[in-house]
Structures are given as structure tokens and as C-alpha cells.
Design a protein that fits this description.
The complex is a heterodimer of chains A (332) and B (306). By secondary structure, chain A is of the alpha/beta class. Chain A contains twelve helices and 15 strands. The chains are: A alpha/beta (332), B alpha/beta (306).
Chain lengths: 332, 306
């Protein structure tokens, strides 16, 4: 790496999505995306990282987007801290088929699931994918601890369960003040957070409508923060709704103007989810061969997020925006 | 229980409802008005939303991503679904939700499960051999700290285990007196497990799970079958209650929230949207059709809810 650039103190931080990913994601980087489960998750990041091909990545997220499954399929992720994956769907569809293949066949790499189960009879040489099991609150507290610059946060969840039994990072102790049992949740070591926001200005003030998820904490826990803005606005417009600025400019390293960055998943007040692409992805991913074809078509076949949108069809997306506006619109 | 007869009308009623109606409509009756209720994902959300629409209009519905007091006009694909932000009292964050829960503000919660033991300890992450489930998500925190938890799910004898493979959600732990308090858990533990073949509850003294309510069409033979399937000596309540089948209002609430039939049709591939894909109608017409259905349903529901 060349000399460190102080991105946080730049006055204007606009970047392209390729530049943002190549600047902040390197081999071995740990990263997270904003939002929760599927909503307002910056899913374009997974596609861009798949295209750029960084290796040995670590991903941490409370309830993870199905998007990370594609990086597991390409073998780019080696550590995955999570509480929930949309894995078992009603009707026998597997939500994260690449994780399933890692577990059953060791393809593309074997998996060690929470120290509880792992790929049986694996003969190859690939480093196993490490999946660490937490609860949502515990992952959130890891971000909170890092954001507050303290080593751990106390927590009252999971006593008597197998989560702390297999996850040795959760420490049990007696509270020194009252002698009550308490769990200690360690801070996370997070390099980059990619967060989709409805509005941002060039300086990096990110405004969010709808739920906040853990974005407040992720933005402060990560060494670098990249905002994907559905809309770039002037700082005057930021002044109109200051309570919505959950990520102030001092957190932000880069701002990417990228409408539909969460596709195929929804963003509050901007667009709804694309159930067809999601289902197409799910169904195609059920076998490794058809998953590769899907990737060639929808990920490697697109240069950037705009091409991905174009492939879905701009008329379709217009419809999707209208549907979301039935529920809510973002005020000017 | 002794002289109960199963009539042909009851059997007709049984055929009328699929398992989603049986589970969700019945579970919705567990939730009380003015309570603050944590809804899970999928059918556990549906059960809570039915309650809100049918008999508990002042319930404060919360979803873990940060939506508080929303109307539940439509089904939610995830706890962070855009619909959760619609007509909501408060938008906050996931950390705030669990903070408030650990502080004791959540009265009830509704969750799904994969395995459950005699004392209501639940596993949702891993099942032997080599099955990865969804994972605890917020369930581990909710079952630790919410005042009471109602589990919902389609009945399957595999769910009842002598020992859960990987416990993610604490129940009454080893079943001893005050086991939860001693371990450091804030909430009071599970209150019921609602299935399409009866409701299971927990004895206040021994914390053992027993069969407490059955549907009118379940005869003694079926009850014996359910009891035998449990790996422990499951008891049946002396005053076994009879569950009223789903009402018209409850069924309407489900229909209202589910214009795309994502819940009502349990088989993924039999849903209209999956059929479009199989038919190759992966085009604008199908998109528009779906979006219009959802929009229409939203507009109708808004009138009802306000």
C-alpha cells in the first residue's frame, strides 16, 4: 500500500463504487454493511468485491444479507461473524446455498460452524471458513464497544445456552459491584463499513430515514466508512433535517452517489425489493453450476451497479420506486 | 376430555384451514392489548399482526431493526421491511430495541423454533447431523430478556427433543426453581408453544411442557399420538381446553396482509410469484401485476387501519 491518505479530513469525499471498494478493501480486510438483514444493505458491495477479487475477507454482521453468500461461493470470505442467516426458507428452499455446499461438500472451502459442526471428511487444502455464532444484540454490542472505544460491553443474553459454550470470545463473569452473572462481549476489529443512506452531502453527512439498525455504531466502529447515497444533496438540505444525520461528516471517508445500491433489496422511502431477482438468485444458486451461470450473467456480466440496474430494467425500477412511495417518501 | 366426539362438521372445519391459519390465528389470541410485543420473522410476525388487527388495536408492535408501534398493514419480509416504518410511532435502531428489551420494556414476544426440550430450551442454529438452521438472530436475546415468549410453528415430532443439539434460546434451563434468575436471565421464560396440533404450555411449578389445548377435531387417539411422540413423559392438562377454529375476522386479517399469498401458500414453488419465474414471465408484466396487488392492498388496509 502507498502512503496513508487521510480521507476523513478531506473536504469533499465523492468517489466511484469501484474506487471506494479498491481503496478500502484489501486482502484480509474485515468489513460490514449497513442496514439489517435485507433492508438498506449495500448489496452492490458484494457484487463489486466479487468482481475485484480481494481474498481472505472477514465479514461481520448481526443478521446477514443473502448477498454475502456469493462471496462465500467465490471463496473470498474466510471468517463470518453472524447471528442469523436466511437459510431455511418455507418450502424447502435453501437461503444460502453456498454455505450449504461448504458444509456438505467443502466446496469451495470447508466450513467450521461455530465450533459445533464442520465439514466432514474434508481432503483438500483450503483454509476453512470460520462461522462464529452470536445473537443480534451481542453483535450490536461489539459495534457499540468499538464505537465507544472500550474493550467490551456487558450483556445479559444467552445464559445457560450453547452460544457462549462454543463461542469462547463471550466471557462469563460475576459483576464486581453486585456479584450478579454477566456476559462480556468483546469489541470488534472492523476495517470498513459500507452504509447505504437516503441522503448525503459531498462532505459525508449521511441521513437515514426509517429504521437505523446498527448504522450509528458501525459508522463509528469502523476505521473507514463509505456511504452509498441514494441522493446527493447540498449541505443546506442537510441543515433542514439535522435529526436524521446519524452519520456526521467526521465519521465518513468516502461518499458514493449510487442509487439502487441495495438492489435487489429495498430502501425505505426509495425503492421496494425486487422479489423476482431475489427468487431467481435463490433458485439458481441451488446447484453450483447454475449459480455460476447466474454470477456470470448478473455479477461478472455487469461492470457496475448501473449496469446491474439496467439489466433488471429501468421501467421495472421505476415501478419499484412507485411501490415504495406508497408507504413513504423522503422529504426534500 | 372423556366424552368428546369428533363430528363431520369438525372434520370439515379441519380441512378448511391450512397449517398457517391454524398456527397463526390461534397464536394471535395469546397477545394482549396495550402490551408491547416483539414480533419475529415470517409466521411469528403474522401471528402478532393478526392480534393487532383483530382484538388488540392498542398493542405496540415492535420489530428488532428499530420500528416501534407500527400498524402492520401488510406482511413483512424481514423485521426491517419498509412496511414496518409505515404508520409507526417511532423509528430507532437495533441497539436501541435490545437495550429497551434488556431494560424490561417488552411484555411479550413471538418466535419460531427448530428444536425444543421438556423445559422450553430452544435450538434454532444447528441440528445434528450437519443441518444449519437460520440461527438465533434476536431470538436468543428476546428469549433471554422479554417478559414472556410464545413460540409458534407447524407441528413436527422432530421438534420435541430430550436434549436440544445446540441451545440458542434459554427456556427454564434445567427446570429447577428460579433457574433463570440464578443464571442471570431477566425475562420470565417461554409461556406457550402454539402448533397446528394443539398448544403446549409450561407447568408453573415443575416448568415441564404439557399439552394444554387441542382443536375440536383432535380425538383421543391423536392426542395419544402427540404425547407418545415426545421423548419425555408428556402430560395432558386435566382440564384440556378446546381451541376455537380460526374466525372469519382472523382469516380476513391474513388475507388482507398477504396479497401475494407468500404466507398462505406454504410451498414456495406454488406461490404465484414463483410460478411467473417458472413460466418465464420474468418481465415487466409480472412485476407490475405484483406491485399493483401490493399497492391496492396497502391502500385498502390503510382505510381499515386509520
Amino acid at each position: 500500500m502507498a502512503e496513508e491518505v487521510d480521507h476523513k479530513h478531506k473536504l469533499y469525499k465523492l468517489m466511484s463504487e469501484q474506487e471506494a471498494v479498491s481503496t478500502f478493501v484489501h486482502d484480509g480486510t474485515s468489513f460490514t454493511v449497513g442496514g439489517f438483514l435485507i433492508n438498506r444493505e449495500s448489496d452492490c458491495v458484494f457484487r463489486e468485491i466479487a468482481r475485484q477479487g480481494q481474498k481472505d475477507l472477514k465479514f461481520i454482521e448481526e443478521s446477514a444479507s443473502p448477498g454475502v453468500d456469493m462471496l462465500i461461493g467465490t471463496g473470498q470470505v474466510v471468517k463470518f461473524d453472524t447471528a442469523y442467516i436466511m437459510h431455511r426458507q418455507v418450502g424447502g428452499i435453501v437461503g444460502m446455498p453456498n454455505i450449504e455446499r461448504c458444509l456438505k461438500e467443502g466446496n469451495p472451502r470447508p466450513v467450521n460452524m461455530g465450533g459445533f459442526m464442520s465439514t466432514p471428511d474434508y481432503k483438500g487444502n483450503e483454509q476453512p471458513l470460520e462461522i462464529v455464532d452470536w445473537t443480534n444484540f451481542q453483535v450490536a454490542l461489539r459495534f457499540v464497544a468499538a464505537a465507544m472505544n472500550v474493550p467490551f460491553m456487558p450483556n445479559r443474553s444467552s445464559f445457560g445456552t450453547d452460544v457462549p459454550k462454543y463461542n469462547k470470545q463471550i466471557k462469563f463473569m460475576k459483576d464486581p459491584y453486585t456479584d450478579q452473572p454477566i456476559h462480556l462481549i468483546p469489541r470488534c476489529d472492523l476495517d470498513v463499513a459500507f452504509i447505504t443512506v437516503q441522503k448525503a452531502d459531498r462532505r459525508g453527512n449521511g441521513q437515514v430515514w426509517g429504521y437505523e439498525g446498527c448504522d450509528v455504531w458501525k459508522a463509528r466502529a469502523a476505521k473507514h466508512v463509505v456511504l452509498f447515497a441514494e441522493k446527493i444533496v447540498s449541505t443546506e438540505e442537510i441543515y433542514r433535517h439535522p435529526a436524521h444525520t446519524i452519520i456526521p461528516a467526521y465519521c465518513t471517508d468516502a461518499v458514493v452517489y449510487l442509487p439502487f445500491s441495495s438492489l435487489p433489496f429495498p430502501v425505505y422511502g426509495c425503492h421496494s425489493s425486487d422479489g423476482f431477482i431475489t427468487m431467481d438468485m435463490l433458485l439458481s444458486s441451488q446447484t453450483r453450476d447454475s449459480w455460476k451461470m447466474w454470477m456470470d450473467n448478473w455479477v461478472f456480466g455487469c461492470k457496475n451497479n448501473a449496469e446491474f440496474c439496467g439489466k433488471i430494467g429501468w421501467e421495472v425500477l421505476e415501478r419499484s420506486v412507485k411501490s415504495a412511495h406508497v408507504l413513504a417518501t423522503i422529504p426534500d | 376430555m372423556a366424552d368428546r366426539k369428533v363430528t363431520p362438521e369438525m372434520m370439515a372445519e379441519k380441512e378448511k384451514w391450512n397449517q398457517i391459519y391454524k398456527v397463526c390465528c390461534v397464536a394471535s389470541r395469546e397477545f394482549k392489548d396495550r402490551n408491547c410485543v416483539f414480533g419475529g420473522v415470517g409466521i411469528s410476525f403474522l401471528a402478532v399482526a393478526i392480534a393487532k388487527q383483530v382484538h388488540a388495536p392498542n398493542m405496540i408492535l415492535v420489530a428488532e431493526a428499530g420500528y416501534v408501534g407500527f400498524t402492520g398493514v401488510t406482511s413483512m419480509g424481514s423485521p426491517a421491511d419498509n412496511a414496518g416504518g409505515f404508520m409507526a410511532m417511532c423509528h430507532q435502531g437495533l441497539f436501541d430495541m435490545f437495550r429497551d428489551q434488556q431494560a424490561g420494556f417488552m411484555d411479550q414476544a413471538c418466535l419460531g423454533l427448530a428444536q425444543i426440550d421438556k423445559f422450553g430450551n430452544v435450538g434454532v442454529s444447528y441440528v445434528n447431523p450437519l443441518i444449519r438452521m437460520n440461527g438465533s438472530g434476536g431470538g436468543g436475546d428476546i428469549s433471554s430478556s422479554a417478559k414472556s415468549v410464545t413460540y409458534v410453528g407447524e407441528y413436527n415430532p422432530r421438534q420435541f427433543q430430550a436434549k436440544v443439539d445446540y441451545i440458542t434460546n434459554p427456556g427454564f434451563l434445567d427446570g429447577s426453581k428460579n433457574a433463570r434468575q440464578k443464571a442471570g436471565l431477566v425475562g420470565e421464560g417461554p409461556s406457550a408453544f402454539v402448533t397446528d396440533r394443539g398448544i403446549f404450555r409450561f407447568d408453573p411449578e415443575t416448568h415441564e411442557m404439557y399439552l394444554s389445548d387441542v382443536f375440536p377435531w383432535q380425538d383421543d387417539k391423536e392426542i395419544a399420538e402427540i404425547v407418545d411422540a415426545a421423548p419425555w413423559d408428556m402430560k395432558v392438562a386435566k382440564d384440556l381446553k378446546i381451541i376455537a377454529p380460526p374466525s372469519e375476522d382472523e382469516a380476513n386479517a391474513v388475507a388482507m396482509m398477504d396479497p401475494l399469498q407468500g404466507y398462505r401458500i406454504t410451498q414456495f414453488m406454488e406461490r404465484p410469484s414463483a410460478k411467473y419465474i417458472l413460466m418465464g414471465r420474468h418481465d415487466l408484466i409480472a412485476y407490475n401485476y405484483n406491485a399493483i396487488l401490493v399497492e391496492e392492498s396497502l391502500r385498502n388496509n390503510m382505510k381499515v387501519m386509520i
